[in-house]
Amino acid sequence: MGKRKQRLLRALGRSAEGVLRGLEEAADRPKQLDYFIEVMRAAYVDDCLAERLELSEPRPKVVGIYCVMAPEELVYAAGAIPLRLCGGSHEASCAGDELAPRDACPVVKSALGSTALGAPSLYELCDVVVVPTTCDAKRKMGEELAQHTEVWVLDVPHVKESEGARRQWLEELHGFKRDLERLTGNRIKRRALKEAIAMLGRAQHQARRLYQLRQAPVPVVRGSEAALALHAFAFDRADSWTEAMTRLNDELEERTRHQQPSQGAQRPRLMLAGAPSIFPNWKLPNLIEEMGGALVTDESCVGDRYLYDPVGAVENTMEDMMVALGSRYLMPCTCPSFAPNDDRLFRLRQAVEDFQLDGVLYLVLKGCVIYDFELQRVEKLMRELGLPVLRIETDYNPEDVEQLRTRVEAFIEMIQENTQLEVGA
Amino acid sequence: MRVTRLRWLVLAVCFVLLTFGGRMGVHLGAYLPTFACYFTGFDSYGGACFLAPLQFALAAGSVDGLLKALLYVVIAILLIIPLGSAWCGWVCPFAFVQDVLDLIRRKLGLGYLRFPEGLREGLRPAKWVFLFIMLLLPLWAAFPILVPSVARHLNIPFCELCPVRYIMPMLTGRASYMGVDLENATTIILSGLGVFFAILTLVLSLFKRRFWCAYCPMVLVLSFFRRISLPKLKKDVQKCTRCEICYNVCPMDVEQVFKEREKENVTFPDCVLCLACIEHCPEDDALRATWAGKTFFRSTRKGFSRRRKIGVDRHKNKDN
Domain B230-307 is of which CATH architecture? Predict the structure, then answer.
């Protein structure tokens, strides 16, 4: 093992452990959260995901996936294991600095760094990685990754509306299916796909349960906790994750029944919008909660958006299931790499209503042009709805935490004062 | 699958009652705005399509005939208002036949065919053509000013073209209807086309969901009343995620429901109110069905999961 790799593993482990410890220190955390903490610890700290996944001999193929457009149902149906690889590590992004242009976003840099050095080793575990053509950075990242590993590029149309785009996307998925069959040597049969859709359907059902539980007027789980639990899906088998999530939801339901808040009920209810906070970049979720905010939802593709939508197959014929997968992984996705992306504004409007939001923190990861582009529209919408928006541009570097702390604190105080004024008047 | 099951039950009961009801003493007359074929025979049908008697009345060419035609239209409107397009989705015996063929396809594990938008757009005028044939040609037959030798045979021109008129009588033992009428050139052309449409419909219904309905003039007639008839399909545009499930489950390929971003009323002309879209919509209250403004069926995520048996809570079951 190279020295650089060892160094990266150590540094990565340290910062990941810091985040996980932080979560464990909260005495009021849900007991069932520990399972998800262990998943993340295995992936990033102990670096033993292969053992944790109990990959039997002969080892099943492992398919690394970026973004949220590659149907994991097909991967499972082919008898392979999907892992979600989008990177959130500062240390890995430093390692990736030399592999990407300066203005590339830290997600891409982190993924490149981790792949190049093979740390954490779950990146080495993947027999192939799937890169959907979402934003420019991800698309070019796919090309660079190909120096280190086999890459399948999944061509995602950027205009969802047109019939041609949807047909091409369906063709693309059929190609993905054939590639998976070639990789694993298993033909994807109707029954296997039906079961995989049902298995992920159960996961999606539990994710939606959590989503609804978090809408309660008194928060029963911290945003940082819920985000971690959802994120853990990336590194776990879908069925084990679902079981753990069912237990967590049961516990949270119990809390709701007994009105046990996880944090003060009076906290301003905030959404973390914009670019995703990918583990272990827990900078903003932590700041929001430390500074007195309640993080009730996000629109992250590793968080609340990850497992929100279900697959709507009815006939269970192969064609119908493929069409349903095509719809699920393209149409409701509100990634800003789509244009026009009005769907996102509708989703945000609904979230404001569902979660009774008081304010929106808008994360722009340095180099992420598309989320920044859409800020104006989001600000306009939130003005209309009477909600303040705070734009925060940062990367994974922990250096600016104290500066951000002041800004987040001021933002939350402003919301609190406004509500008090309203109550007073 | 509750609504789907209920709809199958209603469709099957209507199929039996309307097609064979006459033999059991059910006589609703030929006033119905649905494709219960008149030519299954007076002794067999329990109720029949009003389009055949309407054409006969128009072709009579008398004041009496025209008044009769008016009466058929008025009765049809009175019947359309309470049920709207649900006549197509829940009552039509020929819809039942098509749905059975569709079920066979599913059981064979075959996918469905979806025509490209361009082709669908191109074929859209077909039902208008059928409607004009139905309303204008009988009048020509009544007042054969031009080419009377052709006009004479155009009493019920739409029925001669209608695939249902060839298929349904077979089920009541009147197989002789399935054939080309060789009496003269006009009948040869009309019935030749009719037989062709019938065979086409039977074959394509195995691949394309509700193949005939896209060209059925009754769907068109019912759609004229979609604003004033009582059942409606409504959408909360904000709750919709545009996941496209409603389009995929729609037997009529109605795309506008998921695309709509402004209007609440999404009872589009091709909608047959089968309610499959509500049944499979995963968003709470994004889609709902109302009758005279009152909601009687709404979409829920719980229902979505329950229908797929993925919402079962293992831990809760253990406790109980």
Answer: 2-Layer Sandwich (3.30)
